[in-house]
Amino acid sequence: MAAQTREKAKREERMEEILFTSSADGPIVAYDASSGTTLAHFTGSRCPRKGLSLVSQIQTLTPTENNLSLIAVSHISSSDSASPSIHLYNWWSSTPFHLLFIPEPVAPLLCTPDGSFLFSGGVSGHIHIHAISTLSLIRSFPAHHKPVSCLAFNGDGSLLVSGDDDGAIATFPILRLLDASSAQCDFSLHCFAAHSAAVTSIASVDISTVISCSLDYSCKLWSLTQGTLLHTVRFPCMVWAVAVDQVRAAFYAAGSNGRIYVGPLKSSTHGFELSTCGPEHGHGRVAVTAVTMANEGRDLISAFEDGSIRVWEIDTGRAIRFIGPLEMAGSISDLVVVSSKRIRVKDGCGFVSDSYSRGGQSNRRFCDEEIISRGVGVREMMEMEEMLSVVVTDRKRAIDTLETSLGMYQRLLKLILKEAKGRDSGSTDEPWPCRHGKEEEDGNSL
């Protein structure tokens, strides 16, 4: 009984978060991170690795609010003649509402912490910057000699860090990139050969340190102030993604052999010893494609090549939730976790659940301010949504009845007007029968 009480308390403590997944073969899917419930699908995009981001298009927000209103997705078209684009989705439609056209195909996306500017990495090695408020491209600049493979910010968001398919890493001051008056082409603070194969992911450790991983079987810690290598950690396999645990001063690496490796951010007397998260056998031979922290650092979410997702409780090292794979989804190319309180659309409504199921074309929405003020959870929101749908149906039925009544009154009014017009036009010819009868009575009386 006590164990059940503790489990219930843990569930109640969980952050209300939404998990977004992308795929090159299937839709963007939104889940309730605490239950695994599917909330929405966003279709029409073929998303490459690191090609998913959340952005803001709200002008009145203060920088501390950091509310998000749109989903941005890199789209790799199957047609060579199609123009390269980034798809933008709002919360109540499952299809893109706007396309950001770009000079070349791009893969990784990264949005500034306030959600105002979107960075994208191109196949030519250029990085492109869009202002979300105007949906316009404000700068494109050469960053690498090979395709850009990943983008990240340092701890305070003042530096952009990028990696490419050739193993190089470069850093750029954000203020210099966003300075419209700057006409220079070389914005880099540092650029160095970091790995012997493609850089697959970069994560911030603090303001001056990042960790990178690569297909060269290694993770490396870097000093951004000096552009120098701090430590190298070797793996028995390629590493597809890395996530940083600030609470435990550790990092989690996604192995191509199906295992998630745990390592310290600082060397101990035993060096950088690695352990595995979860069972020793991992997830068979299916590669781990993405990892991300959730629930204020209590959980780790991992995605696999077969489209499945696992949620791990870090303190116990056990998988507490399994999600998917969905029938329509392929290998997961990216994971993004965001607090539901940060999600807001322009008219003050926030996304909660979905009416997509089996062919629907719209996602439902809720008043975000009311939900946040009451502290309502996602499951409660869904119950409220069901009640709302009943109200909407009743209102629609009442409107249909009113429209039918108005139609009847309109037809009746037309008949009355037609009859009155007929009377006026016939007054100079043959009298109306009732009038004729009256005249006869008057004549007889004379």
TrEMBL record:
Basic and acidic residues composition bias: residue spans: 421-439
Family annotation (Pfam families): WD40
One GO location term (cellular component): nuclear pre-replicative complex
Top-level taxon in the UniProt lineage: Eukaryota
InterPro entries hit by this protein: Quinoprotein_ADH-like_sf, WD40/YVTN_repeat-like_dom_sf, WD40_repeat_CS, WD40_rpt, WDR18/Ipi3/RID3
Keyword Glycoprotein annotated: no
Ranges occupied by WD repeats: 141-172, 288-322
Region (Disordered): 421-446
Keywords attached to this entry: Repeat, WD repeat
Keyword Repeat part of the UniProt annotation: yes
Listed GO biological process terms: DNA-templated DNA replication; rRNA processing
Name of protein: Protein ROOT INITIATION DEFECTIVE 3-like
